Structure formats: structure tokens, C-alpha cells
Amino acid sequence: MKHWQMDDVSWDAFDPGKVDPDIVKLVRAAAMVERNANDYTVYLCNVFANDPDFCQAAHYWAVEEVQHGDALGRWAEMAAPGWDYPASFARYRDGYKIDLTAQNSIRGSLTGELIARCMVETGTSSYYSALADATDEPVLKQICLLIAADEYRHFKLFYDHMRRYLQREKLNVWKRFKIAVGRVGESEDDELAFAYYCGNEAASVAYDHDRFSSAYMVRALRFYQVKHVERATGMLLKTVGLPPRGKISAAFTWLTLWVMRRRQRKLAAA
Predict the structure, then answer these.
(1) How many beta carbons lie within 10 A of that of residue 83, not counting itself?
(2) Which backbone phi and psi does 240 adopt, to 5 degrees?
(3) pTM of the complete model beyond 0.90
(4) Which residues touch 51 (CB under 8 Å, ≥6 apart)?
(5) What is the pLDDT of residue 74?
(6) 6 occurs within a structural domain
(7) Burial class of residue 244 (count of CB atoms within 10 Å of its CB; 0-12, 13-18, 19+)
(8) φ, ψ for residue 101, nearest 5 deg
(9) 214 occurs within a structural domain
């Protein structure tokens, strides 16, 4: 069951004078990715075909994810009148496909698949928290806080199922860490780059992965503060079986923050 409804958002409080154009571009891209959750549910239920409890949980997850996309899409249409959310999403669906026929996890194991899902929720929970802190527009701030809370609950959902499978598959810390970091590294693949393209460029403009990935990342990375990276680091370490707090977490947080800021400066300069 959803923890909030579209009518719970205070849409009448929208303030066009507090809209950041760069954030609008990011929200458009996010709406595409969130709205596409039904395809991932098909994939997950193929992979976990022998686990009806997980498949049911995945369907509940998708319902909330689709609502995230619709809420962000509605806000983006308010922030930039004339932008067509359904049409942009249709372009995204036509051009970005995942393998809906796969029967086995691309991560090599069911535990690995759930680790990857934990990383996605780790990233989105910290990202929407960062956007909520970055924007002064009250409606977007509310939406981002609602979504961030959902994404943290989704992390716990996948984490609990991961622990169940871990008892059976016995992946060690190093293997779990490699899967987790590998999934984080996929944030610059076509999923977000193509979403940014569909949300912000006319169909007549040719898609260029490097160009649109950079355009997305140079905007998104600048909104992260120490507390957002610290939260994400703790969730990652917890997933792989390391202490989410302490010296390891502190060192990993600052290393991650340094890499992110260096990457953002390099993209901005380019």
C-alpha cells in the first residue's frame, strides 16, 4: 500500500519564482526513470519466479515508483509550461529497453540482484534528500522528501530479502562489495543519460551518450552535501556486511565526496 497519494501534495503552494532551471532538467530525467519501474518488475519477477512473496513485494514497489514519476512529471509540467511529460516518457520507452525475457539475474546470483537493488535505493534516497535540501520551491521540496522516505523503505525491503538469500548463497563481503560498487558505477550508463535527453531535448536532436550523461552528472553532483554522502555510504556498507558507522565509514564517505566533487569540477570545466 502506498504511504502517500498524489492528493497529499500541496500543489497549490507551487511558487514559480523559486524554480531552478537546472533542477527542472534533473526532475524531468528522474520522472522518466521512476515511471519506468513496471519494466523492472517484469524482469525481477522473471528472475525471482520461484519466490511469490518477493514478486508481490516487487509489484507494490513498482506502484510507488510509478507514483514518484507521475508526481515529478506533474511538477515539471508546472515548472515549465509546455513540456509534455507523457510524450517525453513515450520517447523514453521507445528508445530505452531492458531485457524482459531474462530468466537469470545479470548479477550472477539472486543475492547479487538484491544487492544491486539496494544500491539503486541507496542512490535515490540520498539523491532526493539532496534535491529537497537544494530547492526552495515548496512543492518540489515536499515531493522529494516524500520520495526519499519511500526509497529508504524500499532499501529496507530489498535488504531484508537480500539477507534471506544470503543465508543460502553465502556471498562473502568482497563479492558483495564488488557487486555494490559495480552497480553504483552504472549511474552513468544509458538509463539516466537517455532520460535526460528525452526530457530536455527535441526528438530532432541526435542522442549522444557522453554529452547527455555529462549534462546530467554536472548538475546532479553539485547538490550533494556531506550528510547525503554519509547516509549513502552507511547504507552501502551495511548492504555488503561492513559497519555503517565508524572509521571505515568516515574514510569511505570522504573518499566518495572527493571523487564526486572532482568529477563534477571536471565535467563543469569541460
Answers:
(1) 16
(2) -90, -5
(3) yes
(4) none
(5) 98
(6) no
(7) middle
(8) -105, -5
(9) yes
pLDDT one-digit tens code per residue, 73-93: 999 999 999 999 999 999 999
8 Å CB contact between 19 and 61: no
| Nearest one of 89, 62, 60 to 74, comparing CA atoms | 89
Bin 157: left if φ > 0, else alpha if -120 < ψ < 50, else beta. alpha
* Sequence letter at residue 203: A
* Residue position matching grid coordinates 523503505: 153
Provide, rounded to the nearest whole percent, the portion of the chain with pLDDT above 70: 99
SS3 at position 96: coil
**Between vectors from CA 156 to CA 151 and to CA 160, what angle results, nearest 5°?**
150
Q: By residue range, what is the domain housing residue 134? A: 19-220
211 found inside a domain: yes
Span 242-255, average pLDDT? 92
Task: Supply the pLDDT for residue 267.
Answer: 85
Q: CA-CA distance, 90 to 68, in Å (whole number)?
A: 17
For the chain, the domain total comes to: 1
Q: Tell me the CATH number at 177.
A: 1.10.620.20
How far is the C-alpha of 62 from the C-alpha of 84, rounded, in Å?
22
Q: Which three cell numbers stand for residue 239?
A: 548492504
| d(C-alpha 242, C-alpha 111), whole Å | 16
- Which residue from 61, 88, 87, 52 is spatially nearest to 199, judged by alpha carbons? 88
In a domain, 252, yes or no: no
Residue in the structure block whose three cell numbers are 566518495: 256
User: Residue 6 has what pLDDT?
Assistant: 96
Query: Any idea which residue has 521512476 for its cell?
Result: 34
d(CA 223, CA 200): 19
Q: What cell does 101 get? A: 525475457
Band (pLDDT 50/70/90 cuts) for residue 127 is very high
